[in-house]
């Protein structure tokens, strides 16, 4: 690779880096040669992109599919009021080019998906994950592991922040853990509130995204000790910081002892959020249900009938009347089959429609004919 | 007394209490004691097979209990247990 050179203006611009002994012109050259993809231009992306641009990272990919909204501006300090309604990547590009005209900003105005992720990520040296949902977290992680890219991770919720450096290979060739080593499976939809529901202190992504930018710069330049095999935790409300260890897990399906994931998967489905239409509602016949009861396969049974009906006769399902399903959603599991029944199948179908549409469940089965059909079958035998 | 640090997403079930002290002798017992003190947190800590939910990580000091003795890891006075949930940001 041709050695990066700097104009007089650039040398002046980066002079505070150049006089740091560990950093100097070599560090600055590495930054200029680096290609970093920032996924998400939200609360974390705002400080991340601005510090990476200011620091002189030569090529920065900016990926987002959203437009700027007024409720973003409480924390997404990359944008100004005039940007409301603009695609985020375009507003970001304008701002970053204003900040540093000596770098190259590449925009990706798309939603990262299993179809496009490998093609986009392959052109970069490193990815910084500033996304806002579990499916994309796993997608970014898996794409990085499959392509051998380092994934600098940060995440926030209300007052809590997390930072780590995943899938980093050190100079001895030792590979560090990735996101699936830390969190092998996602929480079921509806159990962990999102920032949209739970809120987030506006300055928190500013702090956490700045730490993330610091790790990106360390990984590129090779200075210091990157946050590999460690998870940094920040509790902004009590000002508590902790760093805990993260180990590689031999059961990791991507790069453990027996890898089972060799290509990108359906991450909506993996996170229990598969969208389905009414016609897709899965049914289980009474015969199939009886077989399921006899088998060792774990499942959850839910009865959505009214209290008085349940008291007359029930088949030991968890009792959540249809009207309470939304409120009691936390009790419904997403990691195994859930059979929902009522008297004859109508109300349970409504419950499933609601749960799939509003909460993204994909593991729900309607007992055909309901408890009436079940008792008929059992009586007949 | 060992101390359990409760992460923000679970504090709404503990009346915003950020930590909990217990004389329990193992990690599992400490989690059960926490759930007994705050029944609403039960279903967020345990699945309906009474296993600690697999998207939570439990740390003793700075070490993952999975590389210690898992739920059976014994606790001493002054030990600090952390519950670390997966968080994803805006649109979980």
Describe this structure in words.
The complex is a heterodimer of chains A (381) and B (92). In chain A, 35% of the residues lie in helices and 17% in strands. Chain A is an alpha/beta fold. Chain A has 2 domains: 34-270, Rossmann fold; 278-380, 3-Layer(aba) Sandwich (Oxidized Rhodanese, domain 1), CATH 3.40.250.10. The longest helix of chain A has 19 residues, at 203-221. Chain A is elongated, with a radius of gyration of 25 Å. The mean pLDDT of chain A is 92. With 92 residues, chain B is of the alpha+beta class. Chain B has one domain: Roll (Ubiquitin-like (UB roll)), CATH 3.10.20.30. Chain B has a 5-stranded mixed beta sheet, with helices on one face. In chain B, a hairpin with a 2-residue loop joins strand 3 (56-60) and strand 4. Chain B is globular and about 35 Å long. The A-B interface holds A 42-44, 130-134, 137, 155-160, 162, 182-187, 189, 191-196, 198, 200, 231, 233, 235, 237-238, 240, 242-247, 249, 298, 300, 330-331, 333, 335 and B 5, 7-9, 18, 43-44, 47-49, 53-55, 57, 59, 62-64, 66-67, 82, 84-92.
In summary, what is this structure?
With 381 residues, chain A is α/β, with parallel strands linked by helices. Chain A is built from 15 helices and 13 strands. In chain A, α13 links the parallel β10 and β11.
Order of helices and strands of chain B: EHEHHEEE
Largest interface: A-B, 50 and 30 residues
CATH classification class of the largest domain in chain A: Alpha Beta
Name the structural class of chain B: alpha+beta
How is this fold's topology laid out?
The complex is a heterodimer of chains A (381) and B (92).
Chain A: H1 8-13, H2 15-18, H3 24-33, E1 35-39, H4 45-55, E2 59-63, H5 88-99, E3 104-108, H6 117-121, E4 126-129, H7 134-147, E5 150-157, E6 160-166, H8 179-182, H9 195-198, H10 203-221, E7 230-235, E8 240-245, H11 267-270, E9 282-284, H12 286-294, E10 299-303, H13 307-312, E11 318-319, E12 337-341, H14 346-359, E13 364-367, H15 370-380
Parallel strand pairs in A: 1-2, 1-4, 2-3, 4-5, 9-13, 10-11, 10-12, 12-13
Antiparallel strand pairs in A: 5-6, 6-7, 7-8
Helix pairs in contact in A: 4-5, 4-10
Chain B: E1 2-5, H1 8-11, E2 19-22, H2 27-37, H3 42-45, E3 56-60, E4 63-64, E5 80-85
Parallel strand pairs in B: 1-5
Antiparallel strand pairs in B: 1-2, 3-4, 3-5
